[in-house]
């Protein structure tokens, strides 16, 4: 890899006539010979099977680590990389993705105790209608139950 030395930038960036010219973040330009490896060859050639397998493991591990990392109260990026590395190793050992996710959650997420205890709503519409009058029964979608209803006090009823 040769560094472009000159007062003017190179006439092009990209690949032309067997040379690839590119600029890095430091602002310097570099020149190298064009690679003979194409995307088609990487996707089809048996020689790159290990590379493709490794790439697939990285793809799955990064998604799992990202899911767990987003749940952390404090974000520290090196921790995300560590989680991704562990997930890759576990996937390489042959563990399924859901088991890897559970292991990462167990290792990095601490269970949080709820400060408030929310009682489940288990009253039927008929019972509430009898107790509070049929007009006071409203559908309730809290706690994953679409069948239950919550009474609305007339003072707080909208409309």
How are the SSEs placed, and which strands pair?
Blueprint: E1 2-3, E2 14-16, E3 19-23, E4 29-33, H1 39-44, H2 49-69, H3 77-93, H4 97-108, H5 125-132, E5 137-139, E6 149-151
Antiparallel strand pairs: 1-4, 2-3, 3-4, 5-6
Domains, number: 3
Structural class: alpha+beta
Main β-sheet description: 4 strands, antiparallel
Strand content: 5-15%
Ends: how far apart?
A: 73 Å
Over all CA atoms, what is the radius of gyration? Answer: 29 Å
Count all strands and give the number: 6
Provide mean pLDDT, rounded. 79
Features of this protein?
disordered C terminus, 4-stranded antiparallel beta sheet, alpha+beta, 3 domains, 5 helices, 159 residues, 6 strands, two-stranded antiparallel ribbon
Note down, in words, how this protein is organized.
The chain has 159 residues and is α+β, with helices and mostly antiparallel strands. The chain is 40% helix and 13% strand. The protein has three domains: 2-33, no CATH class; 39-108, no CATH class; 125-156, no CATH class. It has a four-stranded antiparallel sheet with strand order 1-4-3-2, with no helix packed on it. The longest helix is centred in the middle third of the chain and has 21 residues, at 49-69.
């Amino acid at each position: 890899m040769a560094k472009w030395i000159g007062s003017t930038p190179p006439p092009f960036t990209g690949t032309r006539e067997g040379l690839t010219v590119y600029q890095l973040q430091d602002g310097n330009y570099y020149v190298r010979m064009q690679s003979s490896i194409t995307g088609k060859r990487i996707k089809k050639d048996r020689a790159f099977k290990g590379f493709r397998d490794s790439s697939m493991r990285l793809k799955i591990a990064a998604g799992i680590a990202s899911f767990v990392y987003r749940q952390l109260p404090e974000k520290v990026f090196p921790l995300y990389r560590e989680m991704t590395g562990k997930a890759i190793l576990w996937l390489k050992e042959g563990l399924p993705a859901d088991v890897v996710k559970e292991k990462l959650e167990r290792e990095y997420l601490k269970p949080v105790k709820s400060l408030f205890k929310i009682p489940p709503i288990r009253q039927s519409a008929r019972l509430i209608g009898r107790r509070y009058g049929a007009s006071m029964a409203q559908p309730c979608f809290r706690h994953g139950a679409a069948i239950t209803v919550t009474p609305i006090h007339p003072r707080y009823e909208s409309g």
